[in-house]
Amino acid sequence: MMLVDGLRGFAALAVVLPHAGGLFWFDGAGWLSAWMVRVATHGKLGVEVFFALSGFVIAFSLRRTRLSPSAIGNFILRRSLRLDPPYWVAVGLMCGFLLLRTLMTGKPAEWPSGPHLLSHLLYLQDVLGFGQLNAAFWTLCIEFQFYLAFAVLLGLAQALSRRSGREGVLPLFFSVLFVLSLAWPSGLVRTASDAVHVRYLPPHLFVFLAGALTWWTLEGRLPRAVWYAFALGLWGLCLWKLDGRVFVTAATVSILYLAGRRQRLYSWLAARPFQYLGRVSYSLYLVHVPMCLLLLAVKARVAPPSDAVALAFLAAVFAVSLAAAHVLHTWVEAPCLAWTRRLKR
Question: What is the domain partition of the chain in residue ranges?
Fold first, then answer.
């Protein structure tokens, strides 16, 4: 879908900003740098765009799939083939950056242990308490938890629907789950720390489910009145809590719904630059952190502190990150996509 790919591209660009925000932290920073620091902190909300789009796309891709245990296994395998090889390359790239930093500074690197690396390959680094090698990797762990949980729950809902002979079981099942998941953004359930908030799926589940329910409404499985109630609930929660995550979630699913109702999912953001950004968005997400760290180190050593220099280095961060993403997408991600399509057929 053109709109989905375009939104992914914008989200990937936004997520680069908080990791490049250090370019604007220096003594004597002017108003422009201070403003850019504030803007950069909001870039992390691009993650909610990714999560909402994932819920929408996974519900769409499984719309005709009867999820038996073997079908769930096939789905998870296809997701792994799609995501894992580029991710493993990104893990290696981060290790390469650590080596380069050691050679340049002479300071010993904090090398990940064997179990630490293995936990990354299985998306278990936070669950097992190792922490992230790359600050952006935590979202991949949450995504994979969602894929597994969603496939299992969707299979269960399908089984209940067949047993009862009622088509409405599936949307009812996930509607109830969505309402329950709002306990986290509403503050009814509080996480013990930011680490727990990042580590597990439940605090983020409402974002994924908002996307999935939006597709099911466009498909006709969920009554429009129910979706409107959910959307109004999200906007109301946003006004009540002034929560940026809820705002981005509500905005993303509202755009998707409006585009779907107007038959514009395949035409909005269809321009080539938007579609290119969408194609390389996953690779861009994977590689931008070491690129940011590298250019931050270069700027600290060779560049004078000024707003203009910081902006020039920000442009360089985007250019270098996009170049690295293009290479990763062309040589690793695109072949993986071809494999998953063959496996699905």
Answer: 2-344
